[in-house]
Amino acid sequence: MNDARRKFKRETADQRKEALIQATLSLVAEKGVRGATVRAIAERADVTQGLIRHYFSTKEELVTAAYETHMTEMTDLTFTIAAKVQGTARDHLAALVRTSLEPPVADPRAVALWASFLNKVQQDAQMKATHERTYADFRDRLQDLIRAALDEAGQSVSDTRLHHLATACNGVIDGLWLEGGALPDAFAPGELPGIGVESVGAIIGLDLEQRANQP
Amino acid sequence: MNDARRKFKRETADQRKEALIQATLSLVAEKGVRGATVRAIAERADVTQGLIRHYFSTKEELVTAAYETHMTEMTDLTFTIAAKVQGTARDHLAALVRTSLEPPVADPRAVALWASFLNKVQQDAQMKATHERTYADFRDRLQDLIRAALDEAGQSVSDTRLHHLATACNGVIDGLWLEGGALPDAFAPGELPGIGVESVGAIIGLDLEQRANQP
DNA sequence: TTCGTATTTATACACTTGCATAATTACGAA
DNA sequence: TTCGTAATTATGCAAGTGTATAAATACGAA
């Protein structure tokens, strides 16, 4: 008769929230937002479903928090990796493009998440704001790198032209990122970053593929 | 007391199936596959839910049929529009790129559908096959146009190189298509086709933006 | 060690979901 | 016109959904 009650451990609020968010992200990537049910999330986080209510007053709130976490992590990851590269401005630009199109940034799971969230992003104001913020962040950074690389090559361009170049390069990078994550088998290893560097270089009129000297 | 039974009209099987499929697609675009419930689909098609069972033995079957219809329509649409252009091989290539990145092909709804279906496409064998077939169709066609344009310009390339160029251009086009549909406000009208033509031209080494003479 | 309380589990509820089945009705064939 | 039957509606059901609330327990403070 002793239907032993489940044992549990008390965690800090941050740890539990993080665990619930990660469980949510993995389920959203697999089955979409509606497929990530409260019960499934609780199970994956190894917790009973009532606990979710204790940390997030609603499923909507959990999903929004998960999206925010994911987007921030992605942006940070990209910039962190790319920032490690030493060299000329041209090298920096090439590195950002490469980083954006290689694992762990370019990754089927990340694209699956992007796709799963798209509906909600288009309808929920808060998620839309998060999306636009991270998008603008990336694009401004890219624009700065393009300007620096062109300066370095002795080329000056108007602000209008620079804006156009950044939009074009950003579109190509994001597009290839999506494409690579959606069809990982359509490209040979390393092919996607190569296409990205080639395309971005062609658009702005610099050869990004030739590396500067490195010791 | 006379809870008048709902009046109805008998339609042909094809008409009803088509109506149900269109209702399904519009709901999937808005709310994802799980959000497109049998009851919501029936309501949008102005029919009671039991009827769906009469034409499709399961919701899965309806969703699969809807996906197939959508993908086929998209491919046909793209090729049909692009094929109307007269001119040189270079013009044909430019037209395909432009068509792919303009309405009605490039369109937020189409991208929303793509995103909503992504999960299922990756998991369901039949949908995966449909996806790969339409993808390969487009890419082969693109490759032929690239070869013709290069021939015309007196340039010959190896098969390996041609394959790489087609992959790169296809990635850029699909990527920009996704990007444009996901962020319709990020680009000025006509900007996206311009970026596409510019990028594809840069990748293959031809200026696609200069039109051949047209009467 | 005891005790208080925030954390966690357990249970329940109202509603939605896909699917099944019985009851009606429109419409072509005779 | 009548009549048969396929098309359509109406109703029901078991499983799954998000959320609410009460009961139990781990663990730091005293």
UniProtKB/TrEMBL annotation, chains A, B:
Residues 37-56 bind DNA. It comes from Parasedimentitalea huanghaiensis. Keywords: DNA-binding, Repressor, Transcription, Transcription regulation. Signal peptide: none annotated. This is TetR family transcriptional regulator. GO terms for molecular function: DNA-binding transcription factor activity; transcription cis-regulatory region binding. It comes from the Bacteria. Residues 14-74 form the HTH tetR-type domain. The keyword Transcription regulation applies.
